[in-house]
Design a protein that fits this description.
Subcellular location: Cytoplasm
Shape: extended
Order of helices and strands: EEHHHEEEEHEEEHEEHHEHHHHHHEH
GO molecular function: peptidyl-prolyl cis-trans isomerase activity; protein folding chaperone; ribosome binding
EC number: 5.2.1.8
CATH architecture of the largest domain: Orthogonal Bundle
Number of helices: 14
Largest sheet: 5 strands, antiparallel
Distance between the termini: 66 Å
Oligomer: single chain
Main location: cytoplasm
CATH class of the largest domain: Mainly Alpha
Radius of gyration: 33 Å
Family: Belongs to the FKBP-type PPIase family. Tig subfamily.
Number of strands: 13
Length: about 450
């Protein structure tokens, strides 16, 4: 490989001209011929048996050039980038200048590189840390959640169904007297008040007793996902088979023994309060850290290639899709469910992507300016920690993640510590929260619509 030239054509954009020697390119052409020879048909010869000279005369000398170029170009490009001392942040746009067995390969590669940035005034940043104290009300709420998690389900036969109960029902829906697809279910467990079914359905189950058969009259929303049902009035024939309710355990010493390592409720309460305080303290620290980093970004100077933001968006979209797959959904299904185009979906990540790219560049610059170092012992400790998190051997983690990458991440974390240690942080107690006024039901519904749907939340079933 020979780097013929390296020219900056725009800010952060370079054009490289790279040569591959004739003997190296010729060997790649020979390799491509051996790989494809058996597939080639020439009149008068059995398939794959024609001499190479005949094949090249019939199809042209360049028949195997594409495979040869694809074989040698990646390594030649990487060597040229290294020789030019560039750090690419984009895939190259490649153009073949010439290719022959006599003269070898010449190609141009246009690429964006990591920008040169500067950060000023990152020492002495002023920030406010809000000091929160765990309250008795928060402890009570956490204990109630523990009760919910340890509740048992019982069958209710001495009262009518109420909000919060699980109603086991059969149902079948009709529009204009005709049953419609997807409108029938048997033994379905419906949590009343959950909003799982279309508006008005669950409210009409409330008040009925086990064994009741009744009609539920509803109107499908105008923007219902099944267009043939949108805005239509429907009647559901419903039979209530069973009513289930949660029975919460008593908050006492026995409860504490069952759900924790403590013998008394008082001990459990103290532990709950301790953990809540630790969580509040961590949240306060994170808030300060975010404020400091935001301030650093404001003092970042430099022109950042847009491809860096797009690359980060790519990563965020992939991460989002992995989470969807864990719930049994893919991105195409999610976009169809939400009615979004991929381009507009990607835009929702852009602001966060820009912030993350800028943060990383700023912190890396501070690592350089302050000569922040990470020793090998710290890297080994991080590998060990990662191995425990991933449940694999440390050597396997080392195969997947390079030591340089780990060292860079650790150095960036140390840069955050440096900023914090050199900041002027004022502590203030959190203001007492006023009791929030009761929300109207409509507001609750509006808030619910803003939530991201999970894969197990199908569109309204009835």
């Amino acid at each position: 490989m020979s780097l013929n030239s390296s020219n900056q054509v725009e800010t952060n954009k370079y054009e490289l001209e790279i040569s591959v020697a004739a003997d190296v390119f010729g060997a790649a052409v020979d390799k491509a011929y051996r790989k494809n020879a058996k597939k080639i048909s020439v009149p008068g010869f059995r398939k794959g048996k024609a001499p190479r000279s005949i094949v090249e005369k019939m199809y042209g000398e360049g028949l195997f050039f594409d495979d040869a170029i694809n074989d040698v170009m990646p390594e030649a490009y990487m060597e040229a980038v290294k020789e030019a001392d560039l750090e690419p942040v984009s895939a190259p746009e490649v153009d073949v200048v010439s290719a022959s067995k006599q003269d070898g390969l010449v190609f141009k590669a246009v690429l964006f590189v990591k920008p040169q940035v500067n950060v000023t005034d990152y020492k002495g940043i002023k920030a406010t840390k809000t000091v929160n104290t765990a309250t008795a009300a928060q402890v009570k709420s956490e204990l109630e959640r523990m009760q919910e998690r340890n509740a048992r389900i019982i069958t209710v036969d001495d009262r009518a169904a109420a909000d919060g109960d699980t109603a086991v029902i059969d149902f079948e829906g009709f529009v204009d007297g005709t049953a419609f697809a997807g409108g029938k279910g048997e033994g379905h467990e419906l949590v009343l008040g959950s909003g799982q079914f279309i508006p008005g359905f669950e409210e009409q189950v409330v008040g009925h007793n086990t064994g009741d058969e009744f009609d539920v009259n509803v109107t499908f929303p105008a923007e219902y996902h099944a267009e043939e049902l949108a805005g239509k009035e429907a009647v559901f024939k419903v039979k209530l088979h069973e009513i289930k309710a949660k029975e919460l355990p008593e908050l006492d010493d026995e409860f504490a023994k069952d759900v924790s390592e403590f013998d008394t409720l008082d001990e459990l309460k103290k532990d709950v309060k301790k953990k809540l305080q630790e969580s509040l303290d961590k949240a306060s620290e994170t808030e300060v850290e975010n404020a400091l980093v935001e301030a650093v970004i404001e003092h970042l100077e430099g022109e950042i290639p847009d491809c860096m933001f797009e690359n980060r968006i790519d990563e965020m979209v992939r991460d989002f899709e992995y989470r969807l797959q864990a719930q049994g959904m893919n991105l195409d299904m999610y976009l169809k469910y939400t009615g979004m185009e991929l381009a507009s979906f990607r835009k929702t990540f852009r602001e966060q992507a820009q912030k993350q790219v800028k943060i990383r560049l700023a912190l890396e610059k501070i690592v350089e300016l302050e000569n922040i170092q990470v020793d090998d012992e710290t890297v080994e400790a991080e590998y060990k920690k990662m191995a425990e998190q991933y449940g694999m051997e440390a050597d396997k983690v080392k195969e997947l993640i390079s030591a340089d990458s780990v060292k860079e991440d650790l150095a960036v974390n140390k840069a955050i510590d440096f900023i914090r240690e050199n900041a002027e942080i004022e502590e203030k107690k959190a203001a007492a929260k006023k009791k929030a006024p009761a929300k109207k039901p409509a507001a609750k519904k509006a808030a619910k619509k803003d939530e991201e749907p999970k894969a197990d939340e199908t569109s309204e079933e009835a």
